């Protein structure tokens, strides 16, 4: 996983990739066939299915079509949008928000 990605993003990648793999295996579509149809390398698709890489919209679209998922795989794209702030910024943003609300008061 790329540095700066949140733990939630990594879980979302694993879940969406796992769904692609489940649908693919259930319908008898090989990983190679999916990779060829999507225009990706076999190992790249494997990385997306295992959650090491963020599944692309292209892979979701092709897998949905090849596996006859009728949109069930496409809904995963909502969970693959990047976080507004990288994980390393989350703590800073929380501290900054508290500092802004406490500035000028004696309650902090």
TrEMBL record:
Start and end residues of each HTH cro/C1-type domain: 20-61
Domain of life: Bacteria
Protein name, as recorded: Helix-turn-helix transcriptional regulator
Source species: Streptomyces lanatus
Source organism phylogeny: Bacteria, Bacillati, Actinomycetota, Actinomycetes, Kitasatosporales
């Amino acid at each position: 996983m790329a540095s700066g990605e949140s733990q939630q993003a990594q879980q979302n990648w694993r879940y969406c990739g796992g769904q692609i793999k489940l649908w693919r295996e259930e319908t008898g579509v090989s990983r190679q066939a999916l990779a060829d149809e999507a225009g990706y390398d076999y190992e790249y698709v494997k990385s997306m299915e295992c959650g090491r890489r963020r599944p692309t919209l292209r892979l979701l679209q092709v897998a949905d079509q090849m596996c006859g998922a009728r949109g069930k795989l496409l809904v995963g794209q909502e969970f693959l949008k990047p976080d507004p702030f990288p994980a390393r910024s989350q703590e800073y943003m929380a501290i900054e928000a508290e500092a802004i609300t406490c500035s000028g008061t004696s309650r902090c």
